[in-house]
Amino acid sequence: MSAPVVRVQGLHKSFGDLEVLKGIDMEIDSGEVVVVFGRSGSGKSTFLRCINFLEDPDQGSVEVAGVAVAAGPPTRHRRKEIRRLRTHCGMVFQQFNLFPQMTVLDNVMEGPLRVKGESAKEVRDLSMQLLADVGMADKADQHPIRLSGGQQQRVAIARALAMRPAVMLFDEPTSALDPELIHEVLAVMKRLADAHSTTMVVVTHEMGFAREVANRMCFFHEGVILEEGTPEQMFGSPQRPETKKFLDAVI
Amino acid sequence: MPDSSTREAVPRQRHGLAESVEAFSLSIPFRVKVAAVWAVIFGLLAFAFFRSGFDIAWMIDKAPAIVRGVWVTILFSVIAITAATLLAILGALGRISKNPIAYGISGFYTSFFRGTPLIVQLFLWYLALPQLAIGLLPEPYASWFIWPAAVAGVVGIAFNYGAYMTEIFRAGIEAVPHGQTEAADALGMSYGQRMRRVILPQAMRIVIPPTGNEFIAMIKDTALIGLLGTTILWADPFRVAQLTGKADFRNLEALIIAAIVYWGLTAIFSFFQRKLEARMSKGYVRTAVKAG
Protein backbone atom coordinates (compact mmCIF):
# COMPACT_ATOMS: atom_id res chain seq x y z
CA MET A 1 0.00 0.00 0.00
CA SER A 2 2.83 2.34 0.72
CA ALA A 3 4.36 1.94 -2.76
CA PRO A 4 4.30 5.22 -4.68
CA VAL A 5 1.86 5.63 -7.60
CA VAL A 6 4.50 7.21 -9.80
CA ARG A 7 8.21 6.55 -9.58
CA VAL A 8 10.56 8.42 -11.90
CA GLN A 9 14.25 7.54 -11.84
CA GLY A 10 17.22 9.21 -13.53
CA LEU A 11 15.29 10.83 -16.36
CA HIS A 12 17.44 12.39 -19.08
CA LYS A 13 16.17 13.96 -22.30
CA SER A 14 17.92 15.96 -25.01
CA PHE A 15 16.59 17.66 -28.12
CA GLY A 16 19.59 17.64 -30.43
CA ASP A 17 22.44 19.27 -28.52
CA LEU A 18 20.14 20.80 -25.94
CA GLU A 19 19.90 18.76 -22.75
CA VAL A 20 16.45 19.56 -21.37
CA LEU A 21 16.33 17.06 -18.50
CA LYS A 22 19.53 16.27 -16.60
CA GLY A 23 18.52 13.49 -14.29
CA ILE A 24 15.11 13.78 -12.65
CA ASP A 25 13.98 11.56 -9.78
CA MET A 26 10.53 11.77 -8.25
CA GLU A 27 8.16 9.61 -6.28
CA ILE A 28 4.49 10.51 -5.97
CA ASP A 29 2.21 8.92 -3.42
CA SER A 30 -1.47 8.18 -3.82
CA GLY A 31 -3.60 11.30 -3.38
CA GLU A 32 -0.65 13.65 -3.59
CA VAL A 33 -0.83 16.87 -5.61
CA VAL A 34 2.54 17.89 -7.01
CA VAL A 35 2.87 21.29 -8.65
CA VAL A 36 5.78 21.61 -11.05
CA PHE A 37 6.86 25.16 -11.79
CA GLY A 38 9.76 27.11 -13.21
CA ARG A 39 10.73 29.32 -16.13
CA SER A 40 9.83 28.30 -19.68
CA GLY A 41 12.62 26.11 -21.00
CA SER A 42 13.36 24.74 -17.53
CA GLY A 43 12.21 21.26 -18.63
CA LYS A 44 9.00 21.11 -16.59
CA SER A 45 6.70 20.30 -19.52
CA THR A 46 9.15 17.84 -21.00
CA PHE A 47 9.31 16.08 -17.63
CA LEU A 48 5.52 15.77 -17.50
CA ARG A 49 5.38 14.47 -21.08
CA CYS A 50 8.07 11.91 -20.30
CA ILE A 51 5.89 10.40 -17.57
CA ASN A 52 3.49 8.99 -20.20
CA PHE A 53 6.15 8.80 -22.93
CA LEU A 54 4.71 11.46 -25.21
CA GLU A 55 8.37 12.38 -25.14
CA ASP A 56 10.65 9.37 -25.16
CA PRO A 57 13.38 9.87 -22.54
CA ASP A 58 17.00 9.10 -23.45
CA GLN A 59 17.82 7.56 -20.07
CA GLY A 60 15.96 6.58 -16.93
CA SER A 61 12.72 4.83 -16.15
CA VAL A 62 9.13 5.58 -15.24
CA GLU A 63 6.78 3.40 -13.24
CA VAL A 64 3.07 4.17 -12.98
CA ALA A 65 0.66 1.93 -11.05
CA GLY A 66 3.12 -0.95 -11.20
CA VAL A 67 3.86 -0.67 -14.94
CA ALA A 68 7.54 0.12 -15.36
CA VAL A 69 9.07 1.26 -18.63
CA ALA A 70 12.71 2.17 -19.12
CA ALA A 71 14.32 4.25 -21.85
CA GLY A 72 15.21 2.19 -24.88
CA PRO A 73 14.51 1.47 -28.56
CA PRO A 74 10.83 1.37 -29.67
CA THR A 75 10.48 -2.38 -29.90
CA ARG A 76 7.06 -3.96 -30.26
CA HIS A 77 7.08 -5.11 -26.66
CA ARG A 78 8.15 -1.74 -25.31
CA ARG A 79 5.51 0.13 -27.34
CA LYS A 80 2.91 -2.19 -25.89
CA GLU A 81 4.13 -1.55 -22.36
CA ILE A 82 4.04 2.21 -23.00
CA ARG A 83 0.40 1.92 -24.12
CA ARG A 84 -0.35 -0.05 -20.96
CA LEU A 85 1.33 2.62 -18.83
CA ARG A 86 -0.62 5.35 -20.63
CA THR A 87 -3.96 3.79 -19.68
CA HIS A 88 -3.00 4.59 -16.06
CA CYS A 89 -2.21 8.24 -16.85
CA GLY A 90 -4.83 10.89 -17.55
CA MET A 91 -3.37 13.72 -19.63
CA VAL A 92 -4.79 17.24 -19.89
CA PHE A 93 -3.21 19.46 -22.53
CA GLN A 94 -2.74 23.18 -22.76
CA GLN A 95 -4.68 23.22 -26.04
CA PHE A 96 -7.40 20.77 -24.81
CA ASN A 97 -7.01 18.57 -27.93
CA LEU A 98 -10.60 17.32 -27.87
CA PHE A 99 -11.62 15.24 -30.89
CA PRO A 100 -13.62 17.73 -33.00
CA GLN A 101 -15.55 15.14 -35.02
CA MET A 102 -17.08 13.60 -31.87
CA THR A 103 -19.66 14.94 -29.46
CA VAL A 104 -18.63 15.83 -25.91
CA LEU A 105 -20.00 12.52 -24.62
CA ASP A 106 -18.24 10.50 -27.33
CA ASN A 107 -14.98 12.24 -26.47
CA VAL A 108 -15.29 11.10 -22.87
CA MET A 109 -16.43 7.57 -23.78
CA GLU A 110 -13.74 6.99 -26.41
CA GLY A 111 -10.93 5.84 -24.10
CA PRO A 112 -12.71 3.32 -21.86
CA LEU A 113 -14.87 2.08 -24.76
CA ARG A 114 -12.21 1.62 -27.46
CA VAL A 115 -8.96 1.23 -25.53
CA LYS A 116 -10.15 -0.65 -22.47
CA GLY A 117 -13.04 -2.36 -24.28
CA GLU A 118 -15.54 -1.81 -21.49
CA SER A 119 -19.28 -2.18 -22.07
CA ALA A 120 -21.05 0.77 -23.67
CA LYS A 121 -23.75 0.95 -21.00
CA GLU A 122 -21.28 1.22 -18.11
CA VAL A 123 -19.03 3.64 -19.97
CA ARG A 124 -21.99 5.86 -20.81
CA ASP A 125 -23.09 6.00 -17.17
CA LEU A 126 -19.57 6.72 -15.97
CA SER A 127 -19.05 9.38 -18.64
CA MET A 128 -22.31 11.18 -17.85
CA GLN A 129 -21.36 11.10 -14.16
CA LEU A 130 -17.94 12.62 -14.94
CA LEU A 131 -19.48 15.26 -17.18
CA ALA A 132 -21.84 16.14 -14.34
CA ASP A 133 -18.85 16.36 -11.98
CA VAL A 134 -17.17 18.95 -14.22
CA GLY A 135 -20.46 20.75 -14.81
CA MET A 136 -20.77 19.82 -18.47
CA ALA A 137 -23.59 17.25 -18.50
CA ASP A 138 -25.96 19.61 -20.33
CA LYS A 139 -23.49 19.89 -23.22
CA ALA A 140 -23.04 16.14 -23.71
CA ASP A 141 -24.50 16.13 -27.23
CA GLN A 142 -22.65 19.22 -28.46
CA HIS A 143 -19.52 19.25 -30.56
CA PRO A 144 -16.45 20.78 -28.87
CA ILE A 145 -16.25 23.75 -31.23
CA ARG A 146 -19.44 25.15 -29.74
CA LEU A 147 -17.86 25.32 -26.29
CA SER A 148 -15.70 28.01 -24.71
CA GLY A 149 -12.08 27.24 -23.90
CA GLY A 150 -12.88 26.69 -20.22
CA GLN A 151 -15.73 24.34 -21.09
CA GLN A 152 -13.52 22.42 -23.52
CA GLN A 153 -10.85 22.03 -20.88
CA ARG A 154 -13.38 20.71 -18.36
CA VAL A 155 -14.52 18.14 -20.94
CA ALA A 156 -10.87 17.23 -21.53
CA ILE A 157 -10.49 16.63 -17.78
CA ALA A 158 -13.55 14.36 -17.84
CA ARG A 159 -12.12 12.50 -20.84
CA ALA A 160 -8.87 11.88 -18.97
CA LEU A 161 -10.71 10.82 -15.80
CA ALA A 162 -12.85 8.34 -17.76
CA MET A 163 -9.83 6.03 -17.99
CA ARG A 164 -9.86 5.96 -14.15
CA PRO A 165 -6.14 6.75 -14.18
CA ALA A 166 -3.79 6.31 -11.25
CA VAL A 167 -2.41 9.80 -11.86
CA MET A 168 -3.63 12.89 -13.66
CA LEU A 169 -1.05 14.88 -15.62
CA PHE A 170 -1.87 18.55 -16.28
CA ASP A 171 0.32 20.35 -18.81
CA GLU A 172 -0.30 24.08 -18.26
CA PRO A 173 -4.08 23.50 -18.32
CA THR A 174 -5.03 27.17 -18.02
CA SER A 175 -2.33 28.82 -20.14
CA ALA A 176 -4.46 28.93 -23.32
CA LEU A 177 -7.55 30.28 -21.55
CA ASP A 178 -8.93 33.79 -21.39
CA PRO A 179 -8.39 35.17 -17.87
CA GLU A 180 -12.07 35.02 -16.92
CA LEU A 181 -12.24 31.30 -17.77
CA ILE A 182 -9.22 30.17 -15.75
CA HIS A 183 -11.15 30.05 -12.50
CA GLU A 184 -13.73 27.46 -13.64
CA VAL A 185 -10.98 25.02 -14.66
CA LEU A 186 -8.98 25.53 -11.47
CA ALA A 187 -12.15 25.01 -9.42
CA VAL A 188 -12.69 21.62 -11.07
CA MET A 189 -9.07 20.66 -10.40
CA LYS A 190 -9.33 21.77 -6.77
CA ARG A 191 -12.45 19.66 -6.33
CA LEU A 192 -10.63 16.63 -7.79
CA ALA A 193 -7.86 17.11 -5.26
CA ASP A 194 -10.09 17.79 -2.25
CA ALA A 195 -13.18 15.64 -2.77
CA HIS A 196 -11.77 12.77 -4.81
CA SER A 197 -8.16 12.64 -3.53
CA THR A 198 -6.96 12.41 -7.12
CA THR A 199 -3.22 11.99 -7.54
CA MET A 200 -2.09 14.89 -9.70
CA VAL A 201 1.02 16.33 -11.30
CA VAL A 202 0.35 19.90 -12.43
CA VAL A 203 2.64 22.04 -14.53
CA THR A 204 1.32 25.57 -14.01
CA HIS A 205 2.10 29.21 -13.39
CA GLU A 206 -0.98 29.57 -11.16
CA MET A 207 0.79 30.09 -7.83
CA GLY A 208 -2.50 30.79 -6.03
CA PHE A 209 -3.70 27.34 -7.02
CA ALA A 210 -0.37 25.84 -5.91
CA ARG A 211 -0.54 27.53 -2.51
CA GLU A 212 -4.09 26.28 -1.96
CA VAL A 213 -3.98 22.76 -3.38
CA ALA A 214 -0.42 21.45 -3.67
CA ASN A 215 1.07 19.03 -1.17
CA ARG A 216 4.46 19.52 -2.74
CA MET A 217 6.00 22.00 -5.12
CA CYS A 218 8.99 21.24 -7.36
CA PHE A 219 10.99 24.11 -8.81
CA PHE A 220 12.54 23.16 -12.15
CA HIS A 221 15.64 25.04 -13.22
CA GLU A 222 17.85 24.18 -16.21
CA GLY A 223 16.78 20.55 -16.34
CA VAL A 224 17.00 19.65 -12.66
CA ILE A 225 14.71 19.92 -9.65
CA LEU A 226 16.54 22.73 -7.91
CA GLU A 227 14.29 22.83 -4.88
CA GLU A 228 11.17 21.14 -3.58
CA GLY A 229 8.97 21.41 -0.54
CA THR A 230 5.55 22.24 0.78
CA PRO A 231 3.87 25.47 -0.38
CA GLU A 232 4.60 26.93 3.09
CA GLN A 233 8.31 26.26 2.67
CA MET A 234 8.43 27.47 -0.92
CA PHE A 235 6.47 30.66 -0.45
CA GLY A 236 7.69 31.30 3.12
CA SER A 237 11.39 30.60 2.97
CA PRO A 238 12.75 29.46 -0.40
CA GLN A 239 16.29 28.20 0.09
CA ARG A 240 17.71 28.96 -3.36
CA PRO A 241 18.12 32.45 -4.81
CA GLU A 242 16.76 31.23 -8.21
CA THR A 243 13.56 30.02 -6.55
CA LYS A 244 13.11 33.26 -4.67
CA LYS A 245 13.74 35.29 -7.83
CA PHE A 246 11.21 33.29 -9.82
CA LEU A 247 8.52 33.46 -7.14
CA ASP A 248 9.06 37.18 -6.66
CA ALA A 249 8.62 37.64 -10.41
CA VAL A 250 5.37 35.66 -10.78
CA ILE A 251 3.48 36.58 -7.63
CA MET B 1 -9.30 77.89 -66.95
CA PRO B 2 -9.70 76.02 -70.23
CA ASP B 3 -8.98 72.74 -68.52
CA SER B 4 -11.98 72.83 -66.20
CA SER B 5 -14.34 74.02 -68.94
CA THR B 6 -13.54 71.00 -71.16
CA ARG B 7 -14.01 68.63 -68.24
CA GLU B 8 -17.45 70.06 -67.67
CA ALA B 9 -18.33 69.87 -71.33
CA VAL B 10 -17.84 66.10 -71.61
CA PRO B 11 -20.77 64.84 -69.47
CA ARG B 12 -23.14 67.24 -71.21
CA GLN B 13 -22.33 65.66 -74.56
CA ARG B 14 -23.11 62.16 -73.21
CA HIS B 15 -26.84 62.74 -73.20
CA GLY B 16 -28.53 60.56 -75.76
CA LEU B 17 -28.41 57.00 -76.98
CA ALA B 18 -25.18 55.78 -75.32
CA GLU B 19 -26.31 56.87 -71.90
CA SER B 20 -29.82 55.45 -72.12
CA VAL B 21 -28.37 52.10 -73.27
CA GLU B 22 -26.04 52.12 -70.26
CA ALA B 23 -28.89 53.00 -67.90
CA PHE B 24 -31.04 50.18 -69.31
CA SER B 25 -28.14 47.73 -69.01
CA LEU B 26 -27.61 48.62 -65.36
CA SER B 27 -31.27 47.87 -64.63
CA ILE B 28 -30.83 44.24 -65.73
CA PRO B 29 -29.49 41.83 -63.07
CA PHE B 30 -26.06 40.31 -63.71
CA ARG B 31 -27.44 36.77 -63.71
CA VAL B 32 -29.98 37.59 -66.40
CA LYS B 33 -27.24 38.96 -68.61
CA VAL B 34 -25.10 35.85 -68.06
CA ALA B 35 -28.09 33.68 -68.98
CA ALA B 36 -28.47 35.69 -72.15
CA VAL B 37 -24.82 35.05 -73.04
CA TRP B 38 -25.37 31.31 -72.58
CA ALA B 39 -28.50 31.47 -74.72
CA VAL B 40 -26.56 33.18 -77.50
CA ILE B 41 -23.81 30.52 -77.32
CA PHE B 42 -26.38 27.73 -77.57
CA GLY B 43 -28.15 29.56 -80.39
CA LEU B 44 -24.93 29.89 -82.38
CA LEU B 45 -24.08 26.23 -81.80
CA ALA B 46 -27.56 25.13 -82.87
CA PHE B 47 -27.29 27.28 -85.99
CA ALA B 48 -23.89 25.74 -86.81
CA PHE B 49 -25.18 22.23 -86.23
CA PHE B 50 -28.25 22.62 -88.42
CA ARG B 51 -26.21 24.25 -91.18
CA SER B 52 -24.07 21.08 -91.02
CA GLY B 53 -27.08 18.87 -91.62
CA PHE B 54 -27.96 17.95 -88.04
CA ASP B 55 -30.10 14.80 -88.24
CA ILE B 56 -32.59 15.10 -85.40
CA ALA B 57 -34.49 11.98 -86.36
CA TRP B 58 -31.29 9.95 -86.23
CA MET B 59 -30.47 11.42 -82.84
CA ILE B 60 -33.87 10.57 -81.39
CA ASP B 61 -33.49 7.06 -82.76
CA LYS B 62 -29.98 6.45 -81.38
CA ALA B 63 -29.98 8.57 -78.22
CA PRO B 64 -31.45 5.88 -75.92
CA ALA B 65 -28.63 3.46 -76.75
CA ILE B 66 -25.98 6.11 -76.09
CA VAL B 67 -27.61 7.41 -72.93
CA ARG B 68 -27.98 3.88 -71.61
CA GLY B 69 -24.18 3.71 -71.59
CA VAL B 70 -24.27 6.05 -68.61
CA TRP B 71 -24.89 3.04 -66.37
CA VAL B 72 -21.58 1.60 -67.53
CA THR B 73 -19.89 4.92 -66.75
CA ILE B 74 -21.48 5.00 -63.30
CA LEU B 75 -20.51 1.39 -62.59
CA PHE B 76 -16.92 1.95 -63.78
CA SER B 77 -16.61 5.17 -61.79
CA VAL B 78 -18.06 3.81 -58.54
CA ILE B 79 -15.85 0.70 -58.59
CA ALA B 80 -12.78 2.70 -59.58
CA ILE B 81 -13.25 5.49 -56.98
CA THR B 82 -13.79 2.88 -54.25
CA ALA B 83 -10.64 1.00 -55.19
CA ALA B 84 -8.71 4.24 -55.68
CA THR B 85 -9.74 5.46 -52.23
CA LEU B 86 -8.50 2.25 -50.59
CA LEU B 87 -5.25 2.45 -52.56
CA ALA B 88 -4.87 6.11 -51.60
CA ILE B 89 -5.37 5.41 -47.87
CA LEU B 90 -2.76 2.64 -47.98
CA GLY B 91 -0.49 4.80 -50.13
CA ALA B 92 -0.81 7.78 -47.79
CA LEU B 93 -0.11 5.66 -44.70
CA GLY B 94 2.96 4.41 -46.56
CA ARG B 95 4.08 7.92 -47.44
CA ILE B 96 4.02 8.96 -43.76
CA SER B 97 5.41 5.64 -42.49
CA LYS B 98 8.81 5.21 -40.88
CA ASN B 99 8.87 1.65 -42.23
CA PRO B 100 11.28 1.63 -45.22
CA ILE B 101 9.34 -1.09 -47.07
CA ALA B 102 6.00 0.72 -46.81
CA TYR B 103 7.63 4.06 -47.64
CA GLY B 104 9.55 2.63 -50.59
CA ILE B 105 6.60 0.81 -52.15
CA SER B 106 4.28 3.81 -51.84
CA GLY B 107 6.99 6.08 -53.24
CA PHE B 108 7.42 3.88 -56.30
CA TYR B 109 3.65 3.66 -56.69
CA THR B 110 3.00 7.41 -56.74
CA SER B 111 6.06 8.15 -58.85
CA PHE B 112 5.29 5.64 -61.61
CA PHE B 113 1.53 6.08 -61.81
CA ARG B 114 1.68 9.87 -61.71
CA GLY B 115 4.66 9.99 -64.03
CA THR B 116 3.28 8.02 -66.98
CA PRO B 117 0.26 8.74 -69.21
CA LEU B 118 -3.03 7.16 -68.16
CA ILE B 119 -3.65 5.78 -71.65
CA VAL B 120 -0.26 4.01 -71.58
CA GLN B 121 -1.11 2.51 -68.18
CA LEU B 122 -4.46 1.25 -69.48
CA PHE B 123 -2.75 -0.59 -72.32
CA LEU B 124 -0.10 -1.91 -69.92
CA TRP B 125 -2.82 -3.54 -67.81
CA TYR B 126 -4.68 -4.78 -70.89
CA LEU B 127 -1.91 -5.95 -73.22
CA ALA B 128 1.42 -5.98 -71.34
CA LEU B 129 0.36 -7.62 -68.08
CA PRO B 130 -0.77 -10.87 -69.82
CA GLN B 131 2.64 -11.15 -71.50
CA LEU B 132 4.32 -10.71 -68.11
CA ALA B 133 2.02 -13.25 -66.50
CA ILE B 134 2.58 -15.84 -69.24
CA GLY B 135 6.33 -15.33 -68.94
CA LEU B 136 6.38 -15.76 -65.15
CA LEU B 137 3.50 -18.03 -64.19
CA PRO B 138 2.44 -21.53 -65.16
CA GLU B 139 -1.10 -22.20 -66.33
CA PRO B 140 -3.76 -21.84 -65.10
CA TYR B 141 -2.40 -18.92 -63.01
CA ALA B 142 -1.15 -16.93 -66.02
CA SER B 143 -4.62 -16.71 -67.53
CA TRP B 144 -5.90 -15.06 -64.34
CA PHE B 145 -4.12 -11.92 -65.55
CA ILE B 146 -5.62 -11.89 -69.03
CA TRP B 147 -8.50 -9.52 -68.46
CA PRO B 148 -11.39 -8.22 -70.54
CA ALA B 149 -10.95 -4.61 -71.64
CA ALA B 150 -13.48 -3.37 -69.08
CA VAL B 151 -11.64 -5.01 -66.15
CA ALA B 152 -8.22 -3.82 -67.29
CA GLY B 153 -9.64 -0.35 -67.81
CA VAL B 154 -11.23 -0.06 -64.37
CA VAL B 155 -8.09 -1.42 -62.67
CA GLY B 156 -5.97 1.03 -64.66
CA ILE B 157 -8.16 4.01 -63.75
CA ALA B 158 -8.22 2.95 -60.08
CA PHE B 159 -4.43 2.63 -59.82
CA ASN B 160 -3.82 5.91 -61.64
CA TYR B 161 -6.28 7.93 -59.58
CA GLY B 162 -5.19 6.12 -56.41
CA ALA B 163 -1.70 7.50 -56.99
CA TYR B 164 -2.91 11.09 -57.31
CA MET B 165 -5.27 10.67 -54.37
CA THR B 166 -2.40 9.25 -52.28
CA GLU B 167 -0.83 12.71 -52.28
CA ILE B 168 -4.20 14.29 -51.43
CA PHE B 169 -4.73 11.88 -48.54
CA ARG B 170 -1.15 12.30 -47.28
CA ALA B 171 -1.61 16.06 -47.19
CA GLY B 172 -4.97 15.57 -45.44
CA ILE B 173 -3.49 13.33 -42.76
CA GLU B 174 -0.60 15.73 -42.19
CA ALA B 175 -3.03 18.64 -41.88
CA VAL B 176 -4.63 17.10 -38.77
CA PRO B 177 -3.07 18.97 -35.81
CA HIS B 178 -0.35 17.10 -33.95
CA GLY B 179 -2.25 17.58 -30.68
CA GLN B 180 -4.83 15.08 -31.97
CA THR B 181 -2.13 12.42 -32.28
CA GLU B 182 -0.93 13.22 -28.77
CA ALA B 183 -4.45 13.08 -27.32
CA ALA B 184 -5.03 9.68 -28.95
CA ASP B 185 -1.64 8.41 -27.74
CA ALA B 186 -2.29 9.69 -24.23
CA LEU B 187 -5.46 7.56 -24.09
CA GLY B 188 -3.30 4.51 -24.84
CA MET B 189 -4.59 4.02 -28.39
CA SER B 190 -2.68 1.79 -30.77
CA TYR B 191 -1.54 3.06 -34.18
CA GLY B 192 -4.57 1.48 -35.86
CA GLN B 193 -7.04 2.90 -33.34
CA ARG B 194 -5.49 6.34 -33.58
CA MET B 195 -5.74 6.31 -37.37
CA ARG B 196 -9.24 4.81 -37.58
CA ARG B 197 -10.88 6.72 -34.75
CA VAL B 198 -9.07 10.06 -34.66
CA ILE B 199 -6.82 10.94 -37.59
CA LEU B 200 -8.54 9.52 -40.69
CA PRO B 201 -12.04 10.85 -39.84
CA GLN B 202 -10.57 14.33 -39.56
CA ALA B 203 -8.39 13.88 -42.64
CA MET B 204 -11.47 12.75 -44.60
CA ARG B 205 -13.15 16.09 -44.05
CA ILE B 206 -10.08 17.81 -45.46
CA VAL B 207 -9.81 15.53 -48.49
CA ILE B 208 -13.50 15.50 -49.50
CA PRO B 209 -13.37 18.59 -51.76
CA PRO B 210 -10.24 17.56 -53.71
CA THR B 211 -11.44 13.93 -53.85
CA GLY B 212 -14.72 15.15 -55.33
CA ASN B 213 -12.75 16.92 -58.02
CA GLU B 214 -10.81 13.71 -58.71
CA PHE B 215 -14.09 11.78 -58.98
CA ILE B 216 -15.46 14.25 -61.52
CA ALA B 217 -12.25 13.96 -63.53
CA MET B 218 -12.46 10.16 -63.21
CA ILE B 219 -16.04 10.06 -64.55
CA LYS B 220 -14.76 11.69 -67.71
CA ASP B 221 -11.61 9.58 -67.93
CA THR B 222 -13.58 6.32 -67.85
CA ALA B 223 -14.35 7.18 -71.50
CA LEU B 224 -10.74 6.18 -72.24
CA ILE B 225 -11.61 2.57 -71.36
CA GLY B 226 -13.57 2.43 -74.63
CA LEU B 227 -10.28 2.85 -76.51
CA LEU B 228 -9.22 -0.59 -75.28
CA GLY B 229 -12.07 -1.92 -77.41
CA THR B 230 -14.76 -2.80 -74.88
CA THR B 231 -17.59 -5.03 -76.08
CA ILE B 232 -21.03 -3.47 -76.56
CA LEU B 233 -22.18 -4.91 -73.23
CA TRP B 234 -19.58 -2.77 -71.42
CA ALA B 235 -19.74 0.21 -73.73
CA ASP B 236 -20.01 3.65 -72.13
CA PRO B 237 -21.66 6.61 -73.91
CA PHE B 238 -18.47 7.51 -75.76
CA ARG B 239 -17.92 3.96 -76.99
CA VAL B 240 -21.54 3.60 -78.13
CA ALA B 241 -21.37 6.97 -79.82
CA GLN B 242 -18.18 5.97 -81.60
CA LEU B 243 -19.64 2.69 -82.85
CA THR B 244 -23.05 4.00 -83.94
CA GLY B 245 -21.72 7.31 -85.24
CA LYS B 246 -19.10 5.62 -87.38
CA ALA B 247 -21.58 3.12 -88.79
CA ASP B 248 -24.03 5.77 -90.05
CA PHE B 249 -21.49 8.57 -90.57
CA ARG B 250 -23.33 10.64 -87.97
CA ASN B 251 -20.28 11.40 -85.80
CA LEU B 252 -21.33 14.94 -84.87
CA GLU B 253 -24.76 13.87 -83.66
CA ALA B 254 -23.46 10.82 -81.78
CA LEU B 255 -20.58 12.60 -80.05
CA ILE B 256 -22.78 15.56 -79.05
CA ILE B 257 -25.15 13.17 -77.28
CA ALA B 258 -22.22 11.48 -75.52
CA ALA B 259 -20.76 14.82 -74.46
CA ILE B 260 -24.09 15.96 -73.00
CA VAL B 261 -24.40 12.70 -71.04
CA TYR B 262 -20.97 13.24 -69.40
CA TRP B 263 -21.72 16.89 -68.84
CA GLY B 264 -24.99 16.11 -67.09
CA LEU B 265 -23.39 13.42 -64.96
CA THR B 266 -20.62 15.70 -63.70
CA ALA B 267 -23.14 18.50 -63.03
CA ILE B 268 -25.27 16.16 -60.90
CA PHE B 269 -22.25 14.96 -58.97
CA SER B 270 -20.99 18.50 -58.36
CA PHE B 271 -24.36 19.28 -56.76
CA PHE B 272 -24.12 16.32 -54.37
CA GLN B 273 -20.50 17.15 -53.59
CA ARG B 274 -21.54 20.58 -52.32
CA LYS B 275 -24.23 18.96 -50.14
CA LEU B 276 -21.73 16.49 -48.70
CA GLU B 277 -19.20 19.20 -47.92
CA ALA B 278 -21.82 21.12 -45.96
CA ARG B 279 -22.70 18.00 -43.97
CA MET B 280 -19.07 17.17 -43.24
CA SER B 281 -18.43 20.59 -41.75
CA LYS B 282 -20.42 19.54 -38.67
CA GLY B 283 -18.17 19.83 -35.65
CA TYR B 284 -16.02 22.45 -37.36
CA VAL B 285 -18.37 25.33 -38.04
CA ARG B 286 -20.21 26.80 -35.08
CA THR B 287 -23.26 27.62 -37.16
CA ALA B 288 -23.50 24.22 -38.88
CA VAL B 289 -26.97 22.67 -38.55
CA LYS B 290 -27.17 19.46 -36.60
CA ALA B 291 -27.46 16.79 -39.27
CA GLY B 292 -29.40 13.67 -38.32
Number of helices of chain A: 9
Q: What is the straight-line distance between the termini of chain A?
A: 38 Å
Task: Tell me the series of helices and strands of chain B, N- to C-terminal.
Answer: HHHHHHHHHHHH
Distance between the termini of chain B: 73 Å
Unreliable stretches of chain A (pLDDT < 50, length at least 5) are none
How many DSSP E strands of chain B?
Answer: 0
Short description:
The complex is a heterodimer of chains A (251) and B (292). Chain A has helices at residues 44-51, 76-86, 104-115, 120-133, 149-161, 179-196, 207-213, 231-236, 241-250; strands spanning 6-15, 18-28, 33-38, 59-64, 67-70, 89-92, 167-171, 200-203, 216-221, 224-229.
Keywords:
heterodimer; A: 251 residues; alpha/beta; six-stranded mixed beta sheet; four-stranded antiparallel beta sheet; globular; B: 292 residues; mainly alpha; 12 helices; 78% helix; disordered C terminus
Please explain how this structure is put together:
- The complex is a heterodimer of chains A (251) and B (292).
- In chain A, helix 6 links the parallel strand 7 and strand 8.
- Chain A is an alpha/beta fold.
- The N and C termini of chain A lie far apart (38 Å).
- Chain A is built from nine helices and ten strands.
- The radius of gyration of chain B is 27 Å and the shape is flat.
- The C terminus of chain B is likely disordered.
- Chain B has twelve helices and no strands.
- Chains A and B meet through helix 2, strand 6 and helix 3 of A and helix 9 and helix 10 of B.
